[in-house]
Write a structure and sequence with these properties.
This protein is of the alpha+beta class. The chain contains ten helices and ten strands. About 50% of the residues lie in helices and about 15% in strands. The longest helix has about 35 residues, at about 230-270.
């Protein structure tokens, strides 16, 4: 079915993204995978190309365009290029809204120009060794010491953890408040007591630096409180719908791309004297995946359109949860089935289907696991 989501302007932007990937990312990606981290030059190149801060006001160096469809184009093209290591989506779509919606004018002047130029790489630190989706389990604390906070604790599985110059940390500021006693504090590179642990060894997305972070008596100025004191829970819930939609966009794009690759492969690969595509089982597999992708694409595109509608309130959190769990679980199923159809070649790391199998596995976990998504949906229906 012909997609009607994008305009000529969006497609022109898609061409810009593809050129950027061809020139600035793909020639270096194999080395980044070996290094376990992308180069800072790639972030600066993205800034020069105008790919960072798409929704940030122009006065701070951003694109000044809040239309989420541009972010969706970015997610689709980076997924098709199998280049998740340069986490522009995390920077723009997940962390960006915290800075544009919650930061004071003074904070915006300090942080947003670098955010848009690539000189400031960002991360958000919520997950802890003993606390994932359950915010009440967070143990990192920030004590009020007059003109500053004293931050203590640790975080893990933090994307951009090694490269990040600015980290939004979720910490307890009112211990007896539970989930409603949490605040967002901005920790900057070089603050005494802020240390980075290992660049974690993952099964996929090798070039995406994912790290442990440690905070020991870090003095965080009061000016680095982001949003309301004890308001982190509301702030986090407000931004999660866009985060989950962005993951869903990558999920369906990944499934579609794998289907394209595998469709070509089974037409060319022969077994028993004829192409695999002539076998009924293979045709049924392709037919089932194509149908599932088409149905999922229709729903995700509707979610994107609703979230991008300037006259609306954005995507409903329940629909975002539906899109996230369904699209990412589909991506996982399609990756597994496509790898199987590639046979032994599918198990070889140099084949795109093998990398997609390991790179995409995290999709059903971060941003809220599939099980958490189902719980959110179930509560909305059953109370």
């Amino acid at each position: 079915m012909k997609r009607t989501l994008y305009t000529e302007d969006h497609e022109a932007f898609r061409a810009v993204v593809r050129t950027f990937l061809e020139k600035e990312v793909l020639p270096h990606y194999a080395q980044w995978e070996k290094d376990g981290i992308v180069s800072r030059e790639a972030w600066l190149a993205a800034g020069r190309q105008g790919l960072l801060g798409l929704a940030v006001e122009e006065e701070y160096g951003g694109g000044g365009n809040p239309d989420f469809r541009y972010a969706s184009v970015l997610a689709e093209e980076f997924t098709r290029a199998a280049a998740p290591g340069l986490a522009i989506g995390l920077h723009n779509d997940i962390i960006g809204p915290y800075l544009t919606k919650l930061a004071t004018d003074e904070q915006k002047r300090r942080w947003l120009p670098g955010f848009c130029s690539g000189e400031i790489v960002t991360a958000i630190a919520m997950t802890e060794p003993g606390a994932g989706s359950d915010l009440q389990g967070i143990r990192t604390t920030a004590e009020d010491h007059g003109d500053h906070w004293v931050l203590n604790g640790s975080k893990t599985f933090i994307s951009n953890g090694i490269l990040a110059d600015l980290v939004i940390v979720v910490a307890k500021t009112t211990p007896e408040g539970g989930a409603h006693g949490l605040s967002l504090l901005v920790v900057e590179r070089g603050m005494e007591g802020f240390e980075r642990g290992r660049n974690l060894d993952k099964i996929g997305q090798k070039s995406q630096d994912t790290a442990e972070l440690f905070f020991k008596d870090v003095r965080v100025p009061k000016e680095n409180l982001l949003g309301e004191l004890d308001g982190a829970f509301v702030h986090l819930m407000t931004n999660l719908a866009q985060e989950r939609l962005a993951i869903a966009v990558a999920g369906i794009a990944g499934a579609e791309h794998l289907l394209e690759l595998t469709t070509r492969y089974v037409k060319e690969r022969e077994a028993f004297g004829r192409p695999l595509a002539k076998l009924q089982h293979v045709r049924f597999e392709i037919a089932e995946m194509a149908t599932e992708c088409a149905v999922t694409r229709a729903f995700v595109d509707r979610c994107i359109a609703e979230h991008a509608d300037p006259s609306g309130l954005g995507l409903d959190p329940v629909n975002a949860s539906m899109a996230k769990w369904w699209a990412t679980e589909l991506q996982k199923r399609v990756a597994d089935r496509c790898l199987q159809l590639h046979g032994g070649y599918g198990y070889m790391s140099e084949f795109p289907v093998a990398r997609a199998f390991t790179d995409g596995r995290i999709q059903t976990i971060y941003g809220g696991t599939t099980e958490i998504m189902k719980e959110i949906i179930g509560r909305s229906l059953l109370g």
